Amino acid sequence: MLTPAQAQERCEALIDRARRAGAEAGDVVYLANASESVSVRLGALEDVERSEAEHIGLRVFVGGASASIGSTDMGDAALDELAARAVAMARAAPVDRFAGLADAALLAHAPFPDLDLDDPAEPRPQDLRRLAQEAEDAARAVPGVTNSEGAGAGSGRGVVALATSHGFSGAYAATSHSISASVIAGEDGALQRDHAWRSARFAADLPDPALIGREAGLRTVARVNPGRVKSGAMPVVFDPRVGSSLVGHLLGAITGAAIARRASFLLDRDGAQLFDSSITISDDPLRPRGLRSRPFDGEGLPTAPRKLVEGGRLTGWLMESASARQLGLAPTGHASRGGSGAPHVTTGNIVLEPGCVSREALLADIVDGVYVTELIGNGVNGVTGDYSRGAAGFRIVNGELAGPIAEFTVAGNLIDMFAAMVAADDLEIQRGIDVPTLRVDGMSVAGD
């Protein structure tokens, strides 16, 4: 894997080759990662895995048409061939009047913000095994846990570099560390499983592995001997680890590509009051050590914090340059690049800001409802907003959790769900999308 400086130099070299081969414009992205993981099960080492990958991708524009091509070979001869083939492909491709690089006036310029994403610590395999073992031991020590699906620990490092033919060049490195545990509780045909998992940029920011393991064990034991729930309309409360998916559906609906295709349930709702005025959703790609932080986007534009929903009101779309041109708007610095193809939209660190009531108060007036800890399937229509997913969790009776339930469905329409959403004050920053406990009244629950 190249260093950020070496990767940046390779990207610039490939852009130069593409211009000499006849490209009118173009960009190059370099993506590389190396990771190592160790897993244990029932106290024994189960697997040690290491992977390394690197890829350089070239996109060129000729006469209004574009083509992209990639390679894992970074040598000079390979780059010469890559540039020539990409230009030949573009000359045979159809014209796309919306494709093209971002406006040069919008590009980010060095020095880029230092987001502290690169942890110098490199844990050894024996260190990862110890972390995994501590997590599994703690999970198996929880009374009621009868078996283990294993625990794991891993670390990785990646490098991203981008160069364009109209003046942008940048690169950065980022690391990741993770610990997970998954165990089983119950006997015979009444088995239940659950897990806990945490990830961080720096190893020092991870919780104690025993805490992760104990969380996995307690979650699993709480699910044993689930009952059924009767069908009807009732309040549904989403645990933070599944409530984040509701924000994910919002993000998918406000991408410029979805709006340009007229394939979003939020079409024509720019600036609309979607949520209660207490709801604010923010995007911060510049959070130090953030899991989704980055100093520039996939087109070389600067990234910046932004309120996606403020006071319950949608503030606009998330766009890369192509969809922005289709909509007659400006790109928002949310472009992301894979190894090939055109940029797509990706957000930074998303947070649904905490409300003013405790989790206990959020549940207090619910006479009969459900608390969802797991969602199953993908029954969400991004065009209509219709929502229907299998679920598991707990009954809520007179404001208290009243035993596990499973094999039920929660359904509604995302427009109505957003309007009814109430947030508790128990936000914790753990993932790329973080939300507190969320309550949505009036949903349809299908059980017995």
UniProtKB/TrEMBL annotation:
It comes from the Bacteria. Residues 231-447 form the Metalloprotease TldD/E C-terminal domain. Residues 135-154 are annotated as: Disordered. Gene3D superfamilies: PmbA/TldD superfamily. Residues 27-90 form the Metalloprotease TldD/E N-terminal domain. Residues 119-223 form the Metalloprotease TldD/E central domain. Pfam families: PmbA_TldD_1st, PmbA_TldD_2nd, PmbA_TldD_3rd. InterPro entries: Metalloprtase-TldD/E_C (IPR045569), Metalloprtase-TldD/E_cen_dom (IPR045570), Metalloprtase-TldD/E_N (IPR002510), PmbA (IPR047657), TldD/PmbA_N (IPR035068), TldD/PmbA_sf (IPR036059). Belongs to the peptidase U62 family. This is TldD/PmbA family protein. It comes from Novosphingobium pituita.
